[in-house]
Amino acid sequence: MHPPITLPLTVTLAVLAAAVIHATWNAIAHGIKDQLAAFALIGAGGILVAIPLVLVAPLPRSACWPYLLGSVAIHVFYNLLLMRSYQFGEFSQVYPLARGMSPLVVTILAAAFAAERPTLPQLAGVLIVFAGLAVLVFAGRRPGRPALIAAIGTGLTIAAYTTVDGLGVRLSASPAGYIGWLMLLESLCVPMFALIRRRHVLRAQPRRILAAGLAAGALSVLAYGLVLWAQTRGALAPIAALRETSVIFGAIIGTVVFREPFGRTRIAATILVVAGIVLLNVALGSGRARVRGFGAVGASARCGGFVAVRGWAACAGTCGKSL
Predict the structure, then answer these.
(1) 143 DSSP 8-state letter
(2) Is residue 1 part of a domain?
(3) Is 64 a member of any domain?
């Protein structure tokens, strides 16, 4: 049987905590003026937290490493695009735009290339997300083209690494080991570049900036680690929907902390995006406690096959149990 669509309380609380933590570390990153220094420090903080996980947690199984290494590559592009988003755009605008893009994109691609016809609630979700994102883009000062392109690109990379990690972590048999190796490897890129090209800038940063950046890196590992752990304990679609509540916290932070204009409009638009995401990911009106679209996996599943549905992975092994 697939995991029930009703999430256990511990899983729900873990994903909500991850959403708050994710918005928090992104706000810290945006608040540091020099974005290269910010993401270099975040990478260094991630490395410091990842090393104990790598040393203590069991080594992930060999079957997950192609997914893990693929996710590392995607995360590098994600960090670069996110850095550019914060360099050119307002936090309460680009953060929800990037986060809200991902579920919308994977649903459209599934309909176009995988012959997955959305249900009426899912179609409504697409329209609601589109409306919310449109308000985010056009409310108040419009983002410049660099910020808009970077935010959309960030959303695409989020869709990509979520799909890859959804498959990889379930093959790993060691969620802590998977997140440790993932964060260790993907966190090396920006700090190494900064040390080679702009070491003097890192040395010139005040202590409070150094501490904030390192803390943000640790929080980033914690946030994604909680999500990966939750994906091994509950159905993926409702977890994905719940995780995107981070855009609400991001919009609130942008308004309250950064004093960005048109806060109420953007918060309302952000809530629209979250409502649409819920419709996209949660099976509505079903009398069964199962995720829509997972369906029968077929003969390939009995041999350990995998199927990705709207970007979220389902697996059944040779023993017939869901992982």
Answers:
(1) P
(2) no
(3) yes
